[in-house]
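chain below, 304 aa
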Amino acid sequence: MKIGFVGLGAMGHPMARRLLEAGHALCVYNRTAGRADDLLAMGAVLAPTPAAAARDAAIVFSMLSDDAATQALTFGPDGIASTLGADGMHACCATVSLEQARRLRDGHAARGQSYVSANVLGRPPAAASGALSVIMGGEAGLVDRLEPVVTAFACRMFRVGHDPVQANLVKLSLNFMIMSTIEQMAEVFALNEKAGNDPHALFDIMTGSFFNAPVHRNYGQLMVDGAYDPPGAPVTLGLKDTEMFLAAGHDYHVPLPYAGIARDRFLSAMAAGDGERDFVILQECVRRDAGLGPRRDQTDGGDG
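prediction:
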């Protein structure tokens, strides 16, 4: 069974590698072809276009940076849709807006093509170890076909309705919960630091008691260590996802005041020149508001 993979960025590359390690025949496309060199050494085939990656493929995964790239490489000239066969399926794993999710759903439907949203939860290390969670939305028969392949890079799979857009909304919602948890921890760390409590000690108490979910353990550790570089997910990505969540609230007439706070924190981080650093750096915005000076590891130019 031929599988296509379009987009070999920080998440797409380890996902594609896991598919190869699981024994699948993989044809890959990336705008920067050099990103595929190690995959080619493992047996992958490099496609010159997304259309070539999709031709005769049973499943084509896409993991692209934003709405514009997803639209162009799916429906543009030499895009996935131009060669996706009647027996093939496009599974989009990227975090896109609900507007773009509808374009994918409706564009493939108009062409008589199969489409599923397969949004992933997790950072690059989770992708590399096969520990992602995948939220899938689409026709039950299509999801049934997709699940055995997704196990190559996922340890958990969740089904969310027959409309692919439902999965996209869940993904945006859960991403927002990450952002709001980071804001919550940042405020708690700043208050305790200013009062003389060591944030590392507070982190140990948090994660050793009630607040021991992965979002607290993983992001909290990055925050107390000041591990902002290299980014697992940059501020620009956090801002994009938060603005898409706010747009979803607009679509359904649901006020989302906490999302507005998260958006403003990300804008402040960008204004401070931190747009390409890990989005947990928004705690520095909270620290500045609290009158705390720069962290030593920031003034020394260290990477945490």
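Confidence is low (pLDDT under 50) at residues 299-304. The radius of gyration is 20 Å.
thats it, cya
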